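4.2 Preliminary Data

To establish feasibility before requesting continued support, the project team ran the inverse folding procedure on a target of 183 residues. The structure was first converted into the token representation described in Section 3, and no sequence information of any kind was made available to the design step. The complete token record follows.
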């Protein structure tokens, strides 16, 4: 490597053109705070923020619930995986994954190998309190109750627990949780 390259690289780093922070992916159940926490952290660290569900809604010109109803969960999951792979960068990015994105083995393995995955672990009771009036959750449409939330969480827990770090979110604000991402 030439001296010139090293000098330019160091100058760029010092001037703050990029931070070289490994990409962070937030996973966890719906209502765990992934999007809120990611937005706060992105602003604090001057990172690019991607909310996978929002991008899918814009791309499809439909809500997640409409996609599930009209095209099915399988179509949604394939679209979700494609967007994650297409938009992924190894540095200077924080991604809020959809609650079920980590269920896809290929996506999970890719993210675990190429980013820092953090599971925002939230109890079923807290999830229920946070989302009980939200009618946009396709997996709970017409079935919004503590048992169904617990069932989904129990099914996903093993995959969520494979994350590099687990942060318990119960009784914490998004600001408090975002501070724990750095620890």
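Position-by-position output of the design step:
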């Amino acid at each position: 490597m030439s001296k010139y390259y090293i000098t330019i690289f160091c100058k760029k780093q010092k001037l703050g053109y990029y931070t070289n922070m490994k990409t962070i992916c937030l996973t966890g159940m719906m209502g765990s705070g992934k999007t809120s926490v990611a937005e706060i952290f992105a602003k604090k660290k001057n990172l690019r923020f991607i909310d996978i569900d929002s991008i899918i809604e814009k791309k499809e010109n439909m809500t997640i619930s409409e996609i599930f109803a009209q095209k099915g969960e399988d179509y949604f999951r394939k679209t979700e995986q494609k967007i994650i792979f297409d938009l992924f960068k190894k540095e200077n990015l924080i991604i809020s994954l959809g609650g079920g994105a980590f269920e896809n083995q290929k996506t999970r393995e890719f993210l675990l190998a190429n980013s820092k995955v953090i599971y925002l672990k939230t109890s079923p009771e807290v999830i229920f309190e946070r989302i009980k009036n939200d009618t946009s959750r396709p997996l709970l449409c017409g079935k919004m109750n503590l048992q169904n939330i617990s069932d989904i969480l129990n099914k996903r827990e093993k995959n969520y627990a494979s994350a590099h770090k687990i942060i318990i979110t119960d009784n914490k604000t998004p600001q408090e949780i975002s501070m724990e991402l750095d620890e």
